[in-house]
Larval cuticle protein 65Ag1-like
Amino acid sequence: MKFVIVLAFALFAVAAARPNAVEIVRQNSDVGVESYNYGLETSDGTKKEEKGELKNLGHEDEAIVVHGSYSFVADDGVTYTVTYVADENGFQPSGAHLPVAPAA
């Protein structure tokens, strides 16, 4: 009986320690030989979408090109979104809250 009481107390303590547990509310993925895409959304408002595909398959300049976005709700209550491209030119993020480099 003591074990049951201790176990119940331990479970209650764990539940109380995680009052804002985040759950996955949507998840999808499709992975192929030459491309993939996936998406994820959690109960706290976080979202992630991404698609990638091989470019110039079988050639010397073969590369993967990725297009995606992610968003999250910050501590200030504002939802921030970043969209990006990642390819042979590197990672190129953009978002209303991100600084922009001056024109060269």
About this structure: The CA atoms of residues 29 and 38 lie 4 Å apart. Helices lie at 2-17. The first helix runs from residue 2 to 17. The two ends are 74 Å apart (CA to CA).
